[in-house]
Amino acid sequence: MKKQLFLIALAALALTGCKQPTQEPDPVSDLPDWYYTGGKTGTTTNTSSMAFRQPTPATENVGSGQAFAQGDNIAEKDFVTTTSGRQHGLGPVYVRASCQHCHPNYSHGTSIPEGTYDASHQGNGTLLVVINPATQAYVPWLAGMPQLFGAAPFKAPLDPDKITVTWKTVQDEHGNKFADGETYELRYPEVKMPKEAVYVYNRGYRDPDGLLESEGYEIKLENTIGVYGSGLLDAIPDADIIAQYEKEANDKTSDGQPMLKNGLNPTFWDGGFKETGYYKNDPQWGPKRFTYALTRGPIMDAAGANAIWNITNVTRSDRQYHYLDLNGTIYATCASKDPEVQAGFAEYIAQHDPENTHPEWRTDDPKQNIYAYLTSKNLPVEMSDDEFTQVMVWHRGLAVPAARNVTDKQVLRGKELFTQIGCDYCHRPSWKTGEDVIRDPNNFKGFTAKMPQYQNQTIWPYTDMVQHKLCMENDIRTGWCRTTPLWGRGLHKKATGDAYEARLHDTRARNVIEAIMWHGYSTESDAYYTTQKFYELSKEDRDAIVEFINAI
């Protein structure tokens, strides 16, 4: 009898003393619509460290699950400098060797430590932005995304070991302290790059504008964004985005003043929407959707389709040329005169053109051979059409993780306050997708699998798809920055192992509080008054907004 009572007591103790793991709500139960961040066809219920790597239900529904898996395999693994194999063709110069280097577990890049810029670290998703400060334009002697590595015998256009990052701190009008005593820190990165870090300078090139030799250029950081959910943003109708521009252009405050202190970027709005942009294909394809500068859209010509080529310099049938510098010939000219490149080029080209189909790369003039190769528009295809299709199915098919803790009282309170103080003006909570017709500005004919589509879904990205100015210290190039989607951002640390949340365009904000308070650092910021409302909240209410932002 005593033994039986003991066993009963032990069982009771196990039931009361061992807390069961918290489970996400069953997705088929009665949940709020904002739980399905990507709609029913674009959301994954996986909220683990692998949350950003899941295919959407739409991808499986069209039978492209295998193509997605193959694309994921390409995105995950490093490209190599060999001339055969699935991931061959890296170089002759490149920015990173894989998608994972800049998008760890397909999240945004991790926070950048102080010291030497470590481009080889997987997770360092920041790109160096080297500009003419007078014009805000990229310098012509580097690519817009400068390459940091070279495949022998070629040399890296920039030497990352000579580039340093220093974190500076500033104080806002509140002295970086809330009225209840809680403090926060506002930091920003300062990047230094001596001219000796630039390959073409060391090879005798002199900039006609004098910026290179005088070191009069500016260097900024731009962090990568998460690639998940891009297909869903692509599915928002053009007309709805243009209507958002018109609304914000005409919105007034209660005293009749423009809602936005800085108005809208005149590149895209000048009394009406302008179908203009940065690239030759842009004007015929409506409003831009992707990158901080809104330089890309639709997705078939957006960041992913572009980066799989210009980050790696792996050619494909629609891009049989190298990505070298904005001028197009400066690096090629300097490399062609480099004795060490000349000495190794014959062996290099024997591997890259074994059938001797390009005799112009094998003349008696090594200088001419190197220049002809680097500037060729008819390079061998290194990524097959099947492989590019798989990458694009993967890119368009990445799901958004469902919102977390959607019944938690603190999260619900934060959601209410998020709207009350005006965060939802720029971070517009939801959009409705349209018929989602696949559009390709490059008119690529080789697609061999069906792209997932997201027709007529309510999605919750928390962005207005428009640019605004926050007027921060050492701000982003031009000051104009697309409102970053907030969906999934709270899972960054889990997905990457990063010590910080790495928010804002250059990872300056280590947590949500820092990100919010940077929005109000300047009285000229479009978000200044909303930030002041956040400042005036109690700590309990501030924490509630933080919990909500991390939950969506």
Give a description of the structure.
This protein is of the alpha+beta class and 552 residues long. The chain has two domains: 33-52 and 227-298 and 400-551, no CATH class; 71-226 and 313-374, no CATH class. The protein is built from 18 helices and 13 strands. The strands form six sheets. The chain has a three-stranded antiparallel β-sheet. The chain has a two-stranded parallel ribbon with strand order 1-9. Strands 2-5 form a two-stranded antiparallel sheet. Helix 3 crosses helix 13 (385-397). The chain is globular, with a radius of gyration of 25 Å. 47% of the residues are buried.
Name a few traits of the molecule:
552 residues; alpha+beta; 2 domains; 3-stranded antiparallel sheet; 13 strands; 29% helix; globular; disordered N terminus
**Tally of individual domains:** 2
Rg, please? Answer: 25 Å
Q: State the low-pLDDT regions, or none.
A: 1-28
Alpha-beta classification: alpha+beta
What's the average pLDDT? 92
Hey, roughly how much beta strand do the residues contain? Answer: 5-15%
> How many runs of DSSP E, i.e. beta strands?
13
Note the gap between the termini.
54 Å
**Shape annotation:** globular
Number of alpha- plus pi-helical segments: 18
Spatial ordering of strands, largest sheet: 3-6-7
What is the helix content?
A: 25-40%
Q: What characterizes the major β-sheet?
A: 3 strands, antiparallel
